[in-house]
Amino acid sequence: MTTKLYKGTLSNVILKLLSENDRMYGYQLSKEIKLQTDNNFNIAEGALYTALHKLELEGILDTEHELVDGRNRKYYKLTKEGESEALIKIEELQLFINSLTSFIQPKTI
Q1: CATH architecture of the region 9-104
Q2: What is each CA distance from 2 to 5, 37, 40, 43, in whole angstroms?
Q3: DSSP characters for 13-79?
Protein backbone atom coordinates (compact mmCIF):
# COMPACT_ATOMS: atom_id res chain seq x y z
CA MET A 1 0.00 0.00 0.00
CA THR A 2 1.39 3.38 -1.00
CA THR A 3 0.14 6.38 0.89
CA LYS A 4 0.70 10.12 0.88
CA LEU A 5 2.31 11.98 3.72
CA TYR A 6 -0.17 14.01 5.72
CA LYS A 7 -0.11 17.70 4.96
CA GLY A 8 2.62 19.45 6.90
CA THR A 9 4.70 16.36 7.60
CA LEU A 10 6.78 16.45 4.41
CA SER A 11 8.78 19.45 5.64
CA ASN A 12 9.43 17.66 8.92
CA VAL A 13 10.62 14.56 7.08
CA ILE A 14 12.95 16.68 4.92
CA LEU A 15 14.36 18.38 8.01
CA LYS A 16 14.88 15.00 9.71
CA LEU A 17 16.79 13.59 6.74
CA LEU A 18 18.92 16.70 6.34
CA SER A 19 19.71 16.70 10.06
CA GLU A 20 21.17 13.20 9.56
CA ASN A 21 23.03 14.05 6.33
CA ASP A 22 25.28 16.98 5.46
CA ARG A 23 23.43 17.71 2.23
CA MET A 24 21.11 15.98 -0.21
CA TYR A 25 19.59 16.68 -3.61
CA GLY A 26 15.89 16.35 -4.39
CA TYR A 27 15.87 12.93 -6.02
CA GLN A 28 18.12 11.62 -3.24
CA LEU A 29 15.64 12.88 -0.62
CA SER A 30 12.75 11.22 -2.45
CA LYS A 31 14.63 7.93 -2.75
CA GLU A 32 15.62 7.98 0.93
CA ILE A 33 12.03 8.63 2.06
CA LYS A 34 10.86 5.64 0.02
CA LEU A 35 13.71 3.49 1.31
CA GLN A 36 13.14 4.33 4.97
CA THR A 37 9.38 3.76 4.69
CA ASP A 38 9.61 0.51 2.67
CA ASN A 39 8.02 2.33 -0.31
CA ASN A 40 4.95 3.19 1.75
CA PHE A 41 5.16 6.93 1.12
CA ASN A 42 4.69 8.23 -2.39
CA ILE A 43 6.23 11.70 -2.65
CA ALA A 44 5.05 13.70 -5.63
CA GLU A 45 7.95 15.55 -7.22
CA GLY A 46 5.96 18.80 -7.23
CA ALA A 47 5.19 18.51 -3.51
CA LEU A 48 8.82 17.76 -2.67
CA TYR A 49 10.25 20.72 -4.58
CA THR A 50 7.51 23.04 -3.32
CA ALA A 51 8.43 22.11 0.26
CA LEU A 52 12.16 22.51 -0.45
CA HIS A 53 11.68 25.96 -2.01
CA LYS A 54 9.47 27.08 0.88
CA LEU A 55 12.07 25.98 3.43
CA GLU A 56 14.75 27.76 1.42
CA LEU A 57 12.71 30.99 1.34
CA GLU A 58 12.20 30.74 5.11
CA GLY A 59 15.98 30.61 5.61
CA ILE A 60 15.88 27.06 6.94
CA LEU A 61 17.68 25.54 3.96
CA ASP A 62 20.62 26.72 1.91
CA THR A 63 21.63 25.38 -1.48
CA GLU A 64 24.85 24.46 -3.20
CA HIS A 65 25.24 23.74 -6.89
CA GLU A 66 27.66 21.17 -8.20
CA LEU A 67 28.40 19.88 -11.67
CA VAL A 68 27.90 16.10 -11.70
CA ASP A 69 28.32 14.13 -14.92
CA GLY A 70 27.94 17.33 -16.92
CA ARG A 71 24.70 18.31 -15.18
CA ASN A 72 24.09 20.94 -12.54
CA ARG A 73 22.87 19.32 -9.32
CA LYS A 74 21.27 21.39 -6.57
CA TYR A 75 22.05 20.22 -3.04
CA TYR A 76 20.03 21.29 -0.01
CA LYS A 77 21.46 21.62 3.47
CA LEU A 78 20.33 23.05 6.78
CA THR A 79 21.30 26.58 7.75
CA LYS A 80 22.21 27.30 11.40
CA GLU A 81 18.59 28.39 11.91
CA GLY A 82 17.51 25.24 10.09
CA GLU A 83 19.47 23.04 12.46
CA SER A 84 17.56 24.51 15.42
CA GLU A 85 14.26 24.32 13.54
CA ALA A 86 14.91 20.68 12.64
CA LEU A 87 15.31 19.73 16.30
CA ILE A 88 12.03 21.47 17.17
CA LYS A 89 10.11 19.97 14.23
CA ILE A 90 11.42 16.46 14.86
CA GLU A 91 10.33 16.69 18.49
CA GLU A 92 6.89 18.02 17.43
CA LEU A 93 6.55 15.17 14.94
CA GLN A 94 7.45 12.60 17.61
CA LEU A 95 4.85 14.07 19.98
CA PHE A 96 2.26 13.97 17.19
CA ILE A 97 3.08 10.33 16.40
CA ASN A 98 2.89 9.37 20.08
CA SER A 99 -0.47 11.11 20.44
CA LEU A 100 -1.82 9.50 17.29
CA THR A 101 -0.58 6.09 18.40
CA SER A 102 -2.29 6.39 21.77
CA PHE A 103 -5.46 7.49 19.99
CA ILE A 104 -5.65 4.53 17.62
CA GLN A 105 -4.50 1.82 20.00
CA PRO A 106 -7.26 0.24 22.08
CA LYS A 107 -7.17 1.23 25.72
CA THR A 108 -6.55 -1.59 28.14
CA ILE A 109 -8.54 -1.77 31.36
Answers
A1: Orthogonal Bundle (1.10)
A2: 10, 10, 4, 10
A3: HHHHHHHHSS-EEHHHHHHHHHHHTTT-B---HHHHHHHHHHHHHTTSEEEEEEEETTEEEEEEEE-
Tell me 7's DSSP state. Answer: T
CB 70 within 8 A of CB 48: no
Q: C-alpha angle 58/91/48, rounded to 5°?
A: 45
Q: What is the pLDDT of residues 73-107, one digit of tens each?
A: 999 999 999 999 999 999 988 898 899 899 888 77
C-alpha neighbours within 13 Å on the C-beta side of residue 98: 6
- How many angstroms separate the CA atoms of 89 and 36, rounded? 18
The pTM of this model reads 0.82
